[in-house]
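Hello, quick one for you while I still have it in my head. I'm working through a protein record and want to make sense of it properly. Would you mind checking whether the tokens look sensible for this chain? I owe you a coffee for this, so here goes:
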Amino acid sequence: MLQTPVISFEKLSKYYGTFQVLKNINLEVAKGERVVICGPSGSGKSTLIRCINRLEAHQEGRLIVDGIEMDDSPATARRVRDRAGMCFQHFNLFPHLTALENCTLSPIFTHKLTRQAAEQRAMDYLARVRMDGFAGKYPSQLSGGQQQRVAIARSLCTEPEVMLFDEPTSALDPESISEVLDVMADLADDGMTMLCVTHEMGFARKVADRVVFMDAGEIVEIADPETFFTSPAHERSARFLQQIINH
């Protein structure tokens, strides 16, 4: 058992109609742990982390986030979303708002900060992702990597216990990928609890405490990065790594 799990999946299953997309998932994530989830397309990776903040609802088993058991109540979902920030593949910034305004929305309207306090917090987190010099820019004036860094800052402005990343670099060019991964690595160094779905195996090897490999809705293997990349225990994991490396 891990010490102080901040996220706990217990025999969790999810269905789309009769199709079972997640099968009896058991996983605990400790406070401050960095977990990378990888696997082939359609393996259930994104669905798994989207269950954490109730963007997807599970049908069986239990999911506990920071001591709160997820249920069908909208109030529970709101409490959990306060604790679990999320960055998506597509940045979902409001195009008519500046970077600063995108980052102050939730602190002002959800957390009831004054505008001055919200703007100070936003500037602090924009600086943390190296975007404070772009606070007055609109999303259309920013590159993809810059937009994703603003999206990370926006999530950090709610001061979450956990950061969830759902393939945050898959829509970016190589230079932008490096920018975003560097920011994520900095967050990891600062002790942020992180779950990241990604195909960036270099990032996984460098930053993760554990790698979770999924296939066909199941967790096939959980290992530290060195073990996973040098001597995976399962043939499915080894085949996946070979395909990624030879891609």
Remarks:
- The radius of gyration is 18 Å.
- The longest strand covers residues 5-16.
